[in-house]
Amino acid sequence: MVDSPAAQYALRMVNIEKYFGLVCALRNINMEVGKNEIIGLIGDNGAGKSTMVKILTGVFRPTSGELYIAGRRVDFRTYDVQHAHKYGIETVYQDKSLGEKQALWRNFFIGRQITNRFGFIDVRREKEIANEIMVNTIGFRGRGITVDSKVNKLSGGERQGVAIGRAMHFEAELIILDEPTVALSLKEVNKVINFVHGIKAGGKACIYISHSIGDVYEVSDRFVVLDRGEIVGNLTKKDVPTVKDLDDYLLEYSHGLKDKVD
Ligand SMILES: Nc1ncnc2c1ncn2[C@@H]1O[C@H](COP(=O)(O)OP(=O)(O)OP(=O)(O)O)[C@@H](O)[C@H]1O
Ligand SMILES: [Mg+2]
Fold this sequence. Notes:
Shape: globular
Helix content: 25-40%
Bound molecules: adenosine-5'-triphosphate, magnesium ion
CATH class: Alpha Beta
CATH topology: Rossmann fold
Strand order of the largest sheet: 6-7-8-3-9-10
Number of helices: 8
């Protein structure tokens, strides 16, 4: 089924709900991501951010609701991680996305090997492409890192860069980053932020999740605030022209909640 008004969106969720037994993790989720939009998804621990990511990436099936990717309705009966990749949705996890002891070039092709006409892995071609991605998409230069370097030689920020570069190379339309900067030094965080700027410049979309409001503010075009499974705020940079405005908004919101409870 084609959802034509929504074809302008990379993704649109309609009334998505997710229950774990009796626990409601997401409710009334109506949200869209533009084709070249970076969304900052903000919310306290347990707000439902990662649950949303897992629904979008085909790990969890929602209890109810609809999902449209580039205007096409997703059939949740068959939607899984592989389908999500086919639809151009990629996610980058902090640790799990890269094999530690493998050479970098191998990492780019996990699950997507290039084979020659004899059915063997085309190592030369894979290395060429990996090098292309490293130099042009990720911008790794010098520093002694080559396609043959082992992943465990890379810094945390560089690993994120490789994972993002891989997603961009395979033409992901939407890259989801769930806490990509946890446990990174400031310098490494800056690298990740630059990669996200690269996603924007590359014309793609991104959902960026972080507890660090300063980082979210810098990379995002729009902010969606989740609280206990519901969207409670949807702000553009015009609504909150500085990071302090966003901070103040979040503070006021949480104070409002406290007043309600008291
Ligand atoms: N597999 C699961 N089984 C049961 N409950 C779950 C499961 N995954 C998440 N939950 C519950 O759903 C709610 C949302 O969790 P989620 O991990 O999405 O939060 P989050 O916003 O990502 O939090 P954090 O910022 O801590 O990562 C929580 O109450 C959590 O306990
Ligand atoms: Mg989470």
